[in-house]
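Entry 14. Two folds queued back to back today. First construct below, sequence then C-alpha cells.
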Amino acid sequence: MSKQRMSKPAPSEMALPKRPSSSPTPPEMPATTNPNPPPVSTTTPNTAFPNPLPATPAPRAAVTARLNDQLKELRLPTFREQFQTLAEQATREGLSYPHYLAELASRECQTRNHSRVQRLLRNSRLLPGKTWEQFAWSRVPLQVARQLQSLREGTFLDRRENLLVFGKPGSGKTHLLAALGEQLARQGRSVLFTTCSLLVQELLTAKRDLKLERCLKRLAGFEALIIDDLGYVQQSREEMEVLFTLLAERYERGSVLLTSNLPFSQWEQIFKDPMTTAAAIDRLVHHSVIIELNIPSYRLETAKNTRKTPAEATPSPTAP
C-alpha cells in the first residue's frame, strides 16, 4: 500500500505564535447601582440676566437717570412721574417692595383706563350736554327708568341685542340714547352716534368710491351703533338699500340702538318696499329691547313754563 506524502504549508501560511500582551485587559466589574444618584437639574438657566446684582450699588442719581430712560422705553409714563415720590412715601410708611410696586402698577392702570375712556368719548361723536345726569328722569315712567338702569350695565352688548326707542318728537329719545351711549363709553365700550341721514350719506359715498366693504368693516368695530331719527327725513330707494345692507351686516354681530317717531306699521315709507321693510324689521326686532316714550314733548313743556301769560306779566291793580 503506497504511502501518501503530506505537503508542507508555505512559510507565509504558517500561524505565528501569540505573543503575550504587556498590559492585560482588566476583568469586567459587575455593574453597581448608586442608591442616591445626584439630582438632575430640570431648570433652564436664565440667560436674560447673566450678570448678578452688583456688590456695590451705583449712585442714586445714576440709578434714577437709568430708570427714567428704561421706563420711557417701556412706555410707562405714570411710573416715570411717580416712582420717586412714591418711593419716599413707601420709605416713610415702611411699605414692602411688593406693596410699593403694586401701588405703582395700580396708578399706571388707572391712568391708562382714563385715557382710553377719553379716547372712546372723543371717537363716539356723542352730542355734548346729553349726559345721564342731565336727563329729566322724572318725566319717564318708572318702568322705563328701571329698564334704562339695567341697560346701563352694558351686558346687552355682549348678547348683540338691539335697542329700539319710539316716541313723538321732543319726547327725549335722542337725549336718552346719547346719555346711555355716554355711560357705555365710560365703561370701556366702543360707541358711535350718528343721525340716519348722515349715516346714509356716508354709506352712499363709500359705495360710489367702491369702499362700501371697508366702511362697513369700520362700523363693525363699534360695539354700539346709535342711529338717531330713523324715518324723520324721507330717503330715496338707493339710500335705503345701503342702510338695509348695514342692518343686515350687523345682524347678530353688533348692537344697533335707534330712535324713530314712526311705528313699525309705517316703516314701508322708509324702506319703500314691503319685502325690504319686513326683512329690516325682522332683523332689528330679533334679539331686541323696545321702549316706547308716550310722553309729551319736553321742548313744548319747557316753552310753556318759560312763557309768561299776560296776567302774570301785568301787575294786578291794588284794592282801593
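Second construct, same run, same settings:
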Amino acid sequence: MKTTPRHAPALSAREFRALLPAVFEALTATDAITLGHLHRVKISLKADGSEVTIADRAAERLLRGRLAKHWPTDAILGEEYGGALTRQGRCWLVDPIDGTASYVIGSPMWGTLLSLLIDGEPVFGCIHLPALGETTYAARGHGCWLRRDGARARRVSVGRTVPPLSRAQVGLSSFKESDLAARPGPWRFASLAPKVGRVKIVGDCVQYALVCRGVLDAAIDPLMKPWDIGALAICVEEAGGSVSDLRGRGDRLVERTSLVAARSATLRRSICRHVVER
C-alpha cells in the first residue's frame, strides 16, 4: 500500500531511462573514493556529535559536481554541504555515506543514498551498497530494481505473504530517541521488542534494501534526515511496501524525523501502535 499522494509527480519512462546512465556513472566514480578509504580512514566529529570522514566529504563533492553537470538548474541538498529542501521544482538529496559508524570500523553495512524530488515528493531513489556490490533503485510508477555487480537489473518486490507482527523479522539501526537510549526519547522500543518475532540490528540503509526484496519484514529508524528518507521511501513503496514516520504519518515524508518501512500497511501500523507513547 502506497502512502504518497494520489497525483504525486513522476518521471516518464523516457526520463527514467535517460537518468540511469548518469546516476550509475556518478556512483561508480564515488566508489573509488569510498572504497579507496575503507579500512584506513580517520573520523572527526561534527557539531552534532555524528561521525564524518574525508571520504564522506570528497564523495559528496563528486556527486554534487556530477549532478550539476547533467542537471545544472536542479537544487541539491546533502548531508555534508547543506543546501535547501525545496517544495517546488526539482531537488536532489545526497547522502554520500549512510552508515558512517559502520564504515569507519570496516563493516560493509553502509551505502550511498541518492534521490530526486519533484515538488517535495520523491520520484527516483537509489540505495547503492558498494561494499556489497549491489544497487537497489526505483522510480515512481516504474517499479523497484536490483542490480548486482554490474549485471542486468531484475525487478524486486516485498512479496505477497506478510507475517503478523508476532512472527515478523524487524530491522533496527539504533536505539536513538527511544526508551532504550542513554538519554531516553519518545519511542517505546522496549514495548515493541517482545511483540515481534525477531529484532535484527542490520543498520542504516542496508535494512531497507532487504525489505524491498522481502528478506526483512520491516525496518525502523528513530532519527532521520531528508537525505536518508528520500531514496529509502520510494524504493520500498515501488517494491510494494508501505512507509511512514513512527507516528504513522506519510505526508511530506522527507520532512519527517523518523521512518518505518514494512512489507504491508497492516504490519507498519502495528509497529507504530507499539512504539508511540500512550
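Quick look at the second one. The first strand starts at residue 43 and ends at 45. The chain has two domains: 13-156, 165-275.
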